[in-house]
Amino acid sequence: MMRLPMKSRLIQLLYEKGEAWDFELTNSLLIEYGKSGDYWKWMARFWMTELAAGGILNIVDVEADDGSHFANDKVLYRYNLTDFGKSRVEEVLGA
């Protein structure tokens, strides 16, 4: 079976979880795709920023990182899908 592109899988993971912190989504995604390192970690965060700007994701909470997830004092975001995001997942990914 063919896997979804990582960015699409990120949206699907959030659809399945309902709500999640960016570091939780990133960890799940990287483990599933066998990726590691700063490049992939920051790419996943970039994709989440793009998806929020595009109206797919909604930021529901923010918190300062204590250094255990990305870097000390970086902002952590908790996301959920907007209604538009949910409809796109259901329409495009058949969730």
Description:
- The protein has 95 residues and is an alpha+beta fold.
- It has one domain.
- The protein contains four helices and three strands, in the order αβααββα.
- The chain has helices spanning 6-17, 22-33, 38-53, 83-93; strands at residues 19-21, 57-64, 75-81.
- Strands 1-3-2 form a three-stranded antiparallel sheet.
- α1 packs across α2 (22-33).
- The longest helix is centred in the middle third of the chain and has 16 residues, at 38-53.
- The relative contact order is 0.21.
- The model has no long low-confidence stretch (mean pLDDT 93).
Short description:
This protein is of the alpha+beta class and 95 residues long. It contains four helices and three strands. It has helices at residues 6-17, 22-33, 38-53, 83-93; strands at residues 19-21, 57-64, 75-81.
Keywords:
alpha+beta, 54% helix, 19% strand, three-stranded antiparallel β-sheet
Helix content: 40-55%
Rg on CA atoms, Å? 13 Å
Q: What distance lies between the first and last C-alpha atoms, to the nearest angstrom? A: 16 Å
What's the number of structural domains?
A: 1
Mean of the pLDDT scores?
93
Morphology call: globular
Strand order of the largest sheet: 1-3-2
H and E order: HEHHEEH
Q: How many strands appear in the DSSP assignment?
A: 3
Structural class: alpha+beta
What percentage of amino acids are in beta strands? Answer: 15-25%
